[in-house]
Each structure stands twice: as C-alpha cells, then as structure tokens.
Design a protein that fits this description.
The complex is a heterodimer of chains A (328) and B (178).
Chain A lengths: L5 H5 L17 H15 L16 E6 L4 H13 L3 E6 L7 H13 L5 E6 L4 H8 L5 E7 L5 H15 L6 E5 L6 H12 L4 E5 L15 E3 L2 H4 L5 E4 L15 H8 L3 H4 L7 E3 L12 H4 L6 H29 L1
Helix pairs in contact in A: 2-6, 2-12, 3-12, 4-5, 6-7, 6-12
Chain B lengths: L2 E6 L1 H21 L6 E5 L2 H12 L7 E3 L8 H4 L18 E9 L3 H13 L4 E9 L11 E4 L8 E5 L5 E6 L6
Parallel strand pairs in B: 2-3, 2-4, 4-5, 5-6
Antiparallel strand pairs in B: 1-8, 7-8
Classes of the chains: A alpha/beta (328), B alpha/beta (178).
Chain lengths: 328, 178
C-alpha cells in the first residue's frame, strides 16, 4: 500500500487541518486562516483571566525527543491557555533504531488517551512517521524534525511579519546564515512563497547554503550587504553547531566578521526593516547585541506571538477531530 | 430551498429599543442598580447595547463580548477565525452589568457570556436584556427586559441584520419537495 504523502496526511476530508507537519502542500487560504485565528487569540493575554475553555477536557502530550525550552514552553502555555491538560515527555534522543522505539513510545502514550501529540525529534520525518501510525483520533503537530520542518515557528514568523508589514505581496525578505541545517528556514521559505511575497533571499557562505537553494524559489547571495539591500525583513538564523558534521566554518569570529548583523550593515536594508531571529540567538556571532536589543528587533515579540499561533494550530487540529465525532 | 421573510424594519426596531430603554430605566430604579454598565454580545447584541447605552446616558462606553471561545458547541462548529477580541473597558468587580443580546433562544449564548464575564471579574448583578425572546430554552435562563416575543415555528430562525439599517428577518427551514 502506498504511504500517504504529506498533503494527504495533513488535511481531513473536509479540507481541515488534521495534522500540522509541514507548510508544504498547504494552501494560502489555510495559512491565512491560521494567522487570522491566531489574531483573535493574541488579544487574550490582555485580560484578567488569560485562559479560555475551548479545549477543556482534552489531553495534549508534548513529546520532545530533542531539547527545546522555548518551543516546549510556548506549546505548553498555548495548550494551557486553551484549558487543555498537558503532559510533557522529554525523551533524550537514543542511539537505538528509531522505528521501533518511536512506535513503542507512541503506543504507550496513546494508551494514556492523549488527543494530540506535539512532537520534536532530531530525525527528519519523525512527526510524519508518528502521524502515519497514530490512531485516527490523534492529531500530530510537528514542533521541529531534524533539518526538515518547523511549521509553527514559520507561522509565528509570518504572524510577526504581518503584524508589522500588513500585506505580504510587496515584501522582500532575506534569510541570513545557516540555511543548510535550518528546518526553520525551509519552513519559512515555503510559507513566504505560499503567501506570495515579492522576493525571498537566502544569504550565507556557500558551505551553509543548500546546493538546491535556487530550486526552493529563492535568490542566493553570499555577501551580507548585497543580500539585505532594500529588504523589508531580515531573518537571522542560529549557527547550528550541533548539526554540523565537518568543518564548514573557519571560526565563529570569522563568521561574525562576514555575516554578523551590525547596525552599520543593517543600513543596507530599508529604513523600516525589521530584524527577526527564531532563537536561541548567539550574540556576537549571528548578530550584534546593539541590533538584537535595538529598535528594529522584534525578536521578543516573536516569542509572544508564538503562543497565539500555537493556540490557533492546536484548536484548528482539535476541530478536525470534531468532524470525526460528527460522523461517528 | 431556504426562504426568508422580512419581519421588522429599522424604524420599528428602533422604537422597540426605545421602549426597552424605558423598561430598563424602570428596572434599574426598582432594583436600585447603581452605576450600571452595558455589555453587548457580538454582533447583534453589541448594536443594541450601543443604542441602549446612549439612551440611558451612561458615563462609560458599552462593552463588547465575543463568546466564541466559550461556546459549548466548539466540537460541532469549531473556531471562527474572525473572532473579535472582547472589549470590557471597565473593571467588572462589584458592578451592575446589563447584558444585551439580540435573540434569546436556547440560553446557551447567555451561559457562555456569563462564563466569560466572570473571567473579567465578579459583577454584583447581571441583568439580561434581549430584543427578541423566543421559545426553545434549553437552560434555566430568563430575560429581565425584552423587546418582543413573536410566535415562531420551532424550526424558524429569527435574525437581526445591521447595524445601519437594522432589520429583523425570519428564515424558514427548507420545505420538503419544494
């Protein structure tokens, strides 16, 4: 039997989001729907009681095979603000064969009646694997798999961009740094192109850009000043030392000298350009502290918006399970 | 095919709301409700709340509740991506709240609205005002002030359009073989 492709797996018969594994194959309308839904959740923190009872009685399990404080915490907070109950599993990546271990873990947690898994794993495709094998009553949200995808991070970045820039279509966006190892960049490029921005650029040394970059619908630059010239948004990526096998870089110092974002270099971008970073950021390697803490940095807003975007994705995926209940 | 009939036009609805404001004024005096605040339920209730707020000449602006996140039928209808954030521009603790909706039917909207109100604070009292009251209650919720209680078929729906002009429309269910 042929295994389902991502686009089939992610949507149910009514075209609703059942799993959120990758931006690939999702329509512009669906991405906009996620952003609009997040917009209504973004207003909640201003209230005395920040929770709403939308997912009361549901159980959401954070299944983290790879460490992440920020992503796990914001997913947990998002679930709790929707009144769901949250279980956290932090399972260190083991050297044992992936398949069986993962399936065993999955069956165990299914037996705990979880309605949704939020999965982070160092292996590309892990969330897909779980979604393919999970029971029909469980939704899977990808919270980052290997070098493949990190769709909720991309959507919170889109949300941040829309908050500051409004319309996507006239925008030029530069993604700077370690694109090769970055699942965030991959998801961002897909989201930006689906939302119809005018231009997506990737900027970095040859060793840190994927060889097939052009086929991803981006313009490639190796010079930072050139690459960010007249852009509306500069997205800095973290140097992912933990994913680098060989010597791709001479040194961090050398990297900063060539690709570190400073106030002076930021002059090349549009005067109202915003600076983003998915975190955790390395000050003095990817960007100067003056930029990170400066007026154009929206890095902390990204974290706050991440909660609203994750609330949107969790509630939309739970809604697709409601379709099952209606049919039953 | 669904068909609908116009039930009431703008001027008549405005007259109804004027009458409701009179009854509400009396209710407030009888019950000795000091410094009341008006809160309307999105969308129709909010339009009526604005008018009542003006007619009662209250100092504070009317609040707005969007109860989408509090509905008990989330599993059936899901999240509407266009939820407007609720706006309660005053402290609700100890206040006399006048809660305004357009159509009181099952009572579930009001239950959800009261749940949300209590997430903002602990009102001293809640007075329920509805332009239309109809049969079909599923919860023990009754209005204090109503505009009109028209006889409707069980499966008929009545709907307020607006805000300018306001109109009330009765939507009839599809007829078999038509």
């Amino acid at each position: 039997m042929a295994s389902s492709r991502p686009r089939d797996l992610q949507l149910n018969e009514n075209g609703r989001l059942r799993h959120f594994l990758t931006i690939e194959g999702l329509s512009r309308d669906l991405l906009i729907r996620i952003l609009d839904t997040a917009e209504s959740f973004a207003a909640l923190p201003g209230r005395p009681v920040k929770k709403v009872p939308l997912l009361r009685g549901r159980i959401i399990t954070n299944l983290f095979f790879e460490n992440s404080t920020r992503t796990r915490t914001t997913f947990e907070l998002a679930a709790k603000l929707l009144s769901a109950d949250v279980i956290n599993f932090n399972i260190g990546t083991s050297a044992t064969s992936k398949g069986e271990t993962l399936l065993d873990t999955l069956r165990n947690i299914e037996a705990m009646h979880s309605d949704m898994f939020v999965v982070r794993h160092a292996q590309s495709g892990a969330a897909h694997f779980i979604a393919e094998h999970a029971s029909p009553r469980v939704s899977v949200i990808n919270a980052g798999d290997g070098r493949h995808a990190h769709p909720t991070q991309a959507m919170l970045d889109m949300f941040t961009i829309r908050k500051h820039k409004g319309d996507f279509t006239p925008l030029r966006v530069a993604i700077v740094g370690d694109v090769l190892h970055s699942r965030v960049a991959r998801s961002q490029i897909l989201a930006l192109n689906t939302l119809g921005v005018s231009e997506v650029r990737v900027v970095g040394p040859r060793t840190l850009l994927p060889s097939d970059a052009r086929s991803m619908g981006v313009h490639v630059f190796h010079d930072l000043a050139e690459g960010i010239r007249d852009v509306d948004v500069v997205i800095m990526l973290r140097l992912q030392n933990e994913r680098m096998d060989g010597a791709l870089l001479p040194s961090e110092h050398e990297y900063f000298r060539l690709y570190g974002l400073t106030d002076e270099r930021l002059e090349n971008a549009k005067p109202d350009a915003i600076v983003m970073h998915p975190g955790p950021m390395n000050r003095g390697i990817e960007l100067d502290s003056a930029v990170a803490d400066g007026p154009r940095s929206v890095i902390l807003q990204q974290v706050s918006y991440g909660i609203a975007v994750r609330m949107a994705v969790l509630s939309m995926a739970m809604q697709s399970q409601a379709d099952l209940e209606v049919e039953a | 095919m669904t068909d609908s009939t116009l039930f009431m036009e703008h001027e008549a609805i405005v007259d109804l709301i004027d009458g409701m404001a009179e009854m509400l004024r009396k209710h407030i005096a009888d019950r000795d409700l000091a410094d009341p605040v008006v809160v309307g339920i999105h969308t129709g209730g909010a339009w009526i709340a604005q008018r009542l707020n003006r007619l009662l000449e209250l100092a504070e602006p009317a609040g707005l509740l969007d109860i989408s996140f509090y509905r008990d039928d989330f599993t059936q209808i899901g999240v509407n991506p266009q939820v407007r954030p609720s706006q309660i521009p005053f402290d609700l603790d100890g206040r006399n709240v006048i809660l305004v909706d357009d159509v009181l039917h099952t009572g579930r909207t009001i239950r959800a609205a009261m749940n949300e109100l209590f997430d903002y604070g602990r009102p001293a009292t809640i007075t329920l005002v509805s332009l239309i009251e109809r049969s079909g209650r599923e919860l023990p919720i009754q209005p204090d002030v109503i505009g009109l209680s028209p006889p409707l078929g069980l499966s008929d729906h009545i709907k307020l359009n607006g805000p300018e002009p306001l109109s009330l429309e009765i939507v009839h269910p599809p007829q078999p073989n038509s």
